Amino acid sequence: MESEGFTKFLNSISSDGLSVLDASIPKSKYIPIDLSESNKTLNTVDVSSSPKLGVFVSNHIKKHDALVAYGGYLEVRNIYKRSHHFNSRAKQERNIHLGVDLWCEAKTPIYAPLDGVVHSFKNNTNHGDYGPTIILKHHIPGVEFYTLYGHLSLVSFEKLKVGQGFKQGDKIATLGDANINGDYPPHLHFQIIKDIQGYKGDYPGVCSESDLGYYKGNCPNPDLLLKL
To answer: pTM value?
Structure first.
């Protein structure tokens, strides 16, 4: 299935949107947040400090009387400059975000948006990386694809097995805090992946400008499913 057809397929799965957080949270309690390099207000914040970035995010949520801040697909972000994981001298800087982030409290439950099985899971421990990560594989007649859940708690791995099945709405994990999630304020990185390319428990969530064309096709906007 070509990228355009895959995008249309994802958009057709649900007219109202799927949930990876508690389905009882109304969409009115979700507020967009801009963490791009073009946000002049954010440029006054030391984004290398997870506590300071956390204050910025929590203040934004409180200001709008919301429960969750979301966004970030294809945002160009300065936050990755703090980590060598994204800035190897041998490669072009990776600073374009390929998923949607849902910013909320640590220990927040995460739910399967669709029926799926555990493809793989891994604790990605580089500074600025995902920390504990789960990848689900989904089969909808004629189409196979994957969803990635990053910045989880280690507790999420207890009793978890590759091949384990989850039904839509089943709890699959909880969010981790900065001590385990790659040193970020608590949030879920949610990403759609068409071709997993042999990765297990990991997949690039940030890319360089030169690779954007490929990743934009292989990792379409998660809001096609969430519809926030």
So the answer is: 0.93
Two tokens at 151? 């910045």
- Other C-beta atoms closer than 10 Å to the C-beta of 79 total 22
Tokens 């097995």 sit at which residue? Answer: 161
Encoded tokens for 195 = 């071709």
Contact 108, 67 (CB under 8 A): no
Report the alpha-carbon distance of residue 207 to residue 68 in Å, rounded: 25
Distance CA 53, CA 181 (A): 14
Pick from 135, 114, 113: which is nearest to 124 by CA? 135
Please tell me the predicted confidence (pLDDT) of residue 104: 97
Cα 5 from Cα 23, distance rounded (Å): 28
Task: Please report the domains of the chain, with CATH numbers, ordered by start residue.
Answer: 3-226 (2.70.70.10)
d(CA 20, CA 112): 6
Q: What is the pLDDT of residues 24-36, one digit of tens each?
A: 999 999 999 999 9
Residue 71, CB half-sphere, CA atoms under 13 Å: how many?
14
